[in-house]
Specification:
Blueprint: H1 2-6, E1 15-19, H2 26-37, H3 47-54, E2 60-68, E3 72-79, E4 82-88, E5 91-96, E6 101-102
Parallel strand pairs: 1-3
Antiparallel strand pairs: 2-3, 4-5, 5-6
Helix pairs in contact: 2-3
Length: about 110
């Protein structure tokens, strides 16, 4: 019975809550995750599909998912935060504390 209930429309995600997204890409991260999560099962969320929705955004380090039956899904984002900018010639790229390059992240107020 559980497997039938898990994948039935009774457990269909209708509300996706995203926590942990901040900075200049926050709105895009939230939008992508909400769009990807709608229609999933709150008892069997597809983490691979959710991760793929934000895989090309350099500030997203990882995500975790928690179903909130019957119709909710909580996605928590762990972000790479820029701490400095690397400069080569006239080009600057933001970098995180772990050394990950963050292309596209504004570098205006970061130390070089």
């Amino acid at each position: 019975g559980y497997y039938w209930l898990r994948d039935s429309s009774l457990m269909e995600v209708r509300e996706v809550t995203v926590e942990g997204a901040s900075g200049h890409q926050a709105a895009e991260i939230r939008e992508r995750l909400k769009k990807a999560g709608l229609g999933m099962s709150s008892l069997n969320a597809d983490v691979t599909t959710l991760r793929a929705a934000v895989d090309d955004l350099p500030t997203v380090k990882s995500i975790s998912v928690d179903g909130r039956p019957p119709h909710g899904l909580l996605v928590t984002v762990d972000e790479e935060r820029p701490i400095a900018a690397l400069q080569s010639g006239s080009r600057k790229v933001a970098v995180s504390a772990e050394g990950a390059l963050l292309p596209g992240v504004p570098t205006a107020n970061l130390p070089v």
